[in-house]
Amino acid sequence: METATNIDGLEVVYAKPKTLTDTPTHYCPGCGHGVVHKILMEVIEEMNIQEETIGVAPVGCAVFAYDYMNIDMQEAAHGRASAVATGVKRVLPDKYVFSYQGDGDLAAIGTGETIHTVNRGENILMLFINNGIYGMTGGQMAPTSILGMKTTTSPFGREVATMGNPLKITEMLAQLPGAYYVSRHSVHNTAAVRKLKKAISTSFKYQKEKKGTCFIEIVSNCPSGWKMTPVESNEWLEKNMFPIYPLGDIKVPKS
Amino acid sequence: MASGNGKSNTRLMKGNEALAEAALRAGMQAYFGYPITPQTEVMEYLSIQAPNYPGVVILQAESEIAAINMVHGASGVGARVMISSSSPGISLMQECLSYMASAQLPAVIVNVQRGGPGLGTIQPSQADYFQAVKGGGHGDYHLIVLAPSSVQEMVDFIFDAFRLTEKYRNPAMILADGALGQMMEKVTLPVAGSLPKTNAPWATIGKPNSRERNIITSLFIQPERMEKLNLVLQEKYNQLQKEVRWEEYQTEDAEIVLVAFGLTSRICDKTMNLAREKGLKVGLLRPITLYPFPTNALAKLAKHAKVFLTVEMNAGQMVEDVRLAINGKCPVHFYGRMGGMIPSPEEVLIKVESIAKEFQTAHA
Amino acid sequence: MNMSMTQEIIIAGFGGQGVLSMGQIIAYAAMEGKKEVSWMPSYGPEMRGGTANCTVIVSDSRISSPIITKFDTAIVLNQPSIEKFENAVKPGGILIYEKSTILRPPSRKDIEVLAIPGLEEAQKLKSKQVANMILLGAFLEMRPIVKLEHVISALHSVLPPHRQHLIPLNEQALARGKELAIQVATEMVVR
Q: What percent of chain A is modeled with pLDDT above 90?
């Protein structure tokens, strides 16, 4: 109440969206997940679609997304978020449905579901957080770990001969006719955050118009898994991840 | 393939097709599946009927894993949902079934069993009994399990399964086999719309201002909370015991009691009649629900029967539950065929006769 | 109580000879006649060009086991099935077989054996597809467990719309089968 009195009469320049709960997140300091959560919930609040939106959380660092997002949500088994989202959307075709997955979830164990969900052109938004590592289990190699990247299961760096190449699944998915809008973003600075926000609201607009699958990759950091400070991790992100996962639209609707 | 006599409610139908028709009449809102013999006719039938049921979701998924997770999603928004498969496909679903039991999501799962292990055969089997009644996936949970023995019961049990799964918010399985799926019998179909839908205030259909958000999850990371959920589930399984169903034939004076479920119970029915013709006092107990299991009914019979014979199309699975029920009061024998082989009434009779002889010698 | 009738039938041949549909027609017709029925097919890879068979049980009372190993009647359309099912016919039962496809005829003396030239007669009717209906006609002459009118209405159920015009031809085939059965059975008695 004291706070309210203090800000009474003053212009609000920043507020947490009501679509986020008051639960403190478990995310590590500097992690991109918190920013993406907030952007996503801001869009839902601004579009006034809280009542019409159902989210599907993954297994991975975002497994507790439903603790923070103040909307109806389902928690999927590892890799199956897009299949669960398909089940939701097919029964409730007029609601907004999104899945939220990390790289291990979406591009390793759930690759089959990912490809077929997009191939069917399921009318949902798929959000894909790519930080090139398994954060939740303590920093193992991900399908998107870049060459040379040291993780607990590639302690001498990822090398092609035995571990294969980083999987650019977003480019693959863009090839599918079911993909309507495919775009790659980041949240490492304010300009990037603004672009992501626009991409998310555009995707929901397309979903309303029943255009097909919208797929947004967010190339993000993992200070803990990468063993860096948040600032270092963002610098490393720009220098090492962006050349392999360049930002920008990959597939946009033909006008 | 012919699917019936016009629009009549009494038809000659294949088990798989009858089950699919029953699901539509039971108000099924969504079906997800993946082709596998010997149950593919379920999805084929639904696909043909789909234009007559606008709004009902029929989706062929890319795998059984995807299909059951779609079931999770659809069930989570309160839809009356079904999935069908055969043994290997059911194995693929086990992870999600564990999640659904934990998240307390209703759904009907149909297993038209085939012989295993492995890729096995496509012929009928009952070798998934353990998987069906003991849990199947990880963690402490049970499915509600119904075992039909005729095409008519493939129809009737769909209604029972939807009713039970919604009442208890626990996945329910219909444990059939390839023979029941493929055979044709006369069925009387219930009238569509006769099964009222249970409210699902827990469904994730979008959060209005008037309530807190709904979350469907099986993750309770603090062990104290997870144990609490387990206690809720165990209490539910206690409550479920009152739904136990079984049938008894000629058990009043029976000295030898056959115990068999599904198709095998009909084989044993014939064996029983053949044995009675030979003057042997044989009866039959047929569990209809495999979970909950008719433990008390068996224990009661053990008071006057002399010996039990469990007959299954597997290496001896339900017999373990029969022995637990009989609890050492009588000998419990087993006869089974495996890998897709079906025992004939005559070969079961040979076993019955040898048991009768052995018993008489032992007690002479 | 012995008025109650049960007829247990096996129909066996190659896939594509109309073995499964013959069984279905009996089952449909029996249902029309308010009887209890069960039709159990062999299924799977066997159906893709190999041997196929189905078991049909028609009864006045509830059918217990749909799985049976002894039959009142065997209708056999190929040689491998003769070898498989000749000994499965109950004493006093009947074995009807397609004459043109059997090189080594059955030898049992405790059952009635009828060789029916279904294919040859079907060709005379300008449609070898109805050979199975000729055998079915022969069976129904020997064991009239279902009424002919019910068989005809069963055809209406079993045949897809674009084959409904073949019903009169099928009726002819059934009638021819009945005649042949009388003829063959009489010859057997004379011999």
A: 93
The pTM for the full model equals 0.94
What confidence category does residue A7 fall into, taking pLDDT thresholds of 50, 70 and 90? low
Report the candidate in B83, B76, B28, B17 with the shortest Cα–Cα distance to residue B56: B28
Domain assignment present for residue A9? The answer is: no
Which residue in chain A is spatially nearest to B93 when comparing CA positions?
A77
Two tokens at C2? 């012995």
Query: In CATH terms, are B10-194+211-242 and B247-362 the same topology?
Result: yes
pLDDT of A84 above 50: yes
Cβ contact, residue pair B2, C65, below 8 Å: no
Please, are residues B143 and B172 in contact by the beta-carbon 8 Å criterion?
Answer: yes
Q: Which chain B residue's Cα is nearest to A75? A: B217
Residue A10 lies in a domain: no
Fold of B247-362: Rossmann fold (3.40.50)
Q: Which CATH architecture has domain B10-194+211-242?
A: 3-Layer(aba) Sandwich (3.40)
Query: Counting one residue from B and one from C, how many pairs have CB atoms under 8 Å apart?
Result: 82
Three-class SS of B166-190? HHHCCCEEEEEEHHHHHCEEEEECC
Identify the CA nearest to B75 among candidates B107, B97, B101.
B107
Q: How far is C146 from chain B (nearest CA, A)?
A: 15
Question: Counting beta carbons within 10 angstroms of the beta carbon of residue C130, is it exposed (0 to 12), middle (13 to 18) or buried (19 or more)?
Answer: buried
User: C6-190: what CATH class?
Assistant: alpha beta
Residue A3 lies in a domain: no
Locate the domains of chain B by residue range. Answer: 10-194+211-242, 247-362
Quick check: A2 pLDDT over 50? no
Alpha-carbon span C176 to A139, nearest angstrom: 80
Q: Chain A: list its partners (3+ Cβ pairs within 8 Å).
A: B
Tell me which DSSP letter residue C44 carries: S
Residues in contact with B168: Cβ distance below 8 Å, sequence separation at least 6, in sequence order = B106, B144, B236, B239, B240
What is this model's ipTM? 0.93
Nearest-Cα distance to chain B for C182, in Å, is: 31
- Please give the structure tokens belonging to residue B47: 């696909």
Domain ranges of chain C: 6-190
Which domain CATH number covers A125? 3.40.50.970
State the residue range of the domain holding A136.
26-251
* Number of domains into which chain A is organized: 1
